[in-house]
Structures are given as C-alpha cells and as structure tokens.
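To whoever is on call:

I kicked off a structure prediction for a single chain this morning and the downstream step that reads the tokens threw a length-mismatch warning. I double-checked the sequence; it's 244 residues and nothing unusual in it as far as I can see. Pasting both halves so you can look.
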Amino acid sequence: MTPLSGYAAKALPLPAHLALRYAFAFDDWTIGQITKTLTRGPHGLYQETMVAHAVGLARLLTHVVLADNGTFRIASGAVQPLSYVATRRGDSKAYRRHAIFSWQRQRLIFGTGQQVSIPAGAQDEESVFYAFMLHPLTKGVRDIAITNGATLTPYRFVYRGRERIRTPAGVFGTIEILRLNPAELRARNACRARPSPQVSRCLRHVTRFTIWVAPRLHDLAVKLRKTSGSRTLTITLTRMIGQP
C-alpha cells in the first residue's frame, strides 16, 4: 500500500474555476441537489465549496442544508488542505465543524480544541475529491485519512476495474473505486473468512460505497453510490461549468 504523498505520478493541473452540479437520489427518487465549486485565488490557494439541499417534493419533508467550505494548496504535486468547515442547518441536528491543518506542526486542530497527528496525505471530505484528480488510482489500494471537521477517519480506496456509464452530463469510460471505512473493512474481511458458499451472501449485507471517476475529465467523480441493505443512495453528475 502506498500513501497518497508517496505517489510519483505526474500532477495534473487543477482548473482556475470549476462548478459542478449533482443529483442526489434515494433509491429511484431524486430528493436533492449538490453544487460543488473550485476557485483558485491570486496566491495559488484553492477555495472549495459544497452546498446540498432538497428539491421537488422532498422540500416538503426537509429544509436541511449541508454546506462545506475549505482551502487547500498544491504542495509537492499533491493537494494539501489548510482549513475545512462543515455545517448543517434547518433541523435539530444542526452543527458547525471546523478543522485547521497545521502541516508545520503535523497536527490537525479541531474547533473543540482537540488535536490529533496528521498522517501523510490526509484530506478533508471535499479536498479528497480533488486529490484524486491529481493522483488517479489506477490499480491496487490507497489508504487516506479524511476529516469531516470533527474526527479523522482512515479510509481504504480499492481499485475495482473499468466501466462505461451513462450520466445526464454524458457517457464516460470510468474507473470504479470502492471506499471502505474501518467498520466496513472489518465486515468485508469477516465475510471473506467464511466458507466459500457463504461469502457472497454475507457481502450483500455489508455497506458498500462506490465511486466512478472519469479519466477523460482528469478523474473527476461522475457518480457515487452507497448501498446499505436494500436501500441505495446515488449521486450523479448532471452539469459541469469549466474544464477539469
């Protein structure tokens, strides 16, 4: 396994401005819209934003708005996050999470005052989206620690092969990547330790988060899907302004 910072792949330039729109569907019902933007400032710092809210009939059921924003720079050819804020508003579960990356001290500092060590190649939930555009995963696995603004969680990304998929934004040849958190990784390993006839049936009950990235869009994510039991959550690219 090679951490993100150890990859020697040639860095692809990130755009000065990029705006992306995704549809958010629960099973076969479109319930929300996600807008992501990336803007490069005059000193080479990047500003990332994400806003998610309900659309259509779903707005009658919820007024929740999720919004993330952060900054990062490109250091040694890789995305290096500097700050990240995640907020939720519109219901009783509202929150504001804040994290600062102090790379000089090798510490991740949360808004609560708690601090943890930063592993090489650590990202936030938005910057990791662009980190894969600079260093595509084309084989094997990659381990990346990701913060949601309140905690730091180690994730494993597994190359699963190539697939051609259709989205409202176009038809793309993609790389399929499986993302696993520690609990999902343990569950999958436990399934694989079972007798062969039981493995497939066991794996069907493990939460599965899959990402499809399009190499011709510099490995931009064009589709994401989370399957948990019989329920499926899908995020699909619908519109893009700017060239990745």
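Update from on-call: the warning came from a stale cache, not from the record. Cleared it. Sanity check on the structure: Confidence is low (pLDDT under 50) at residues 1-12.
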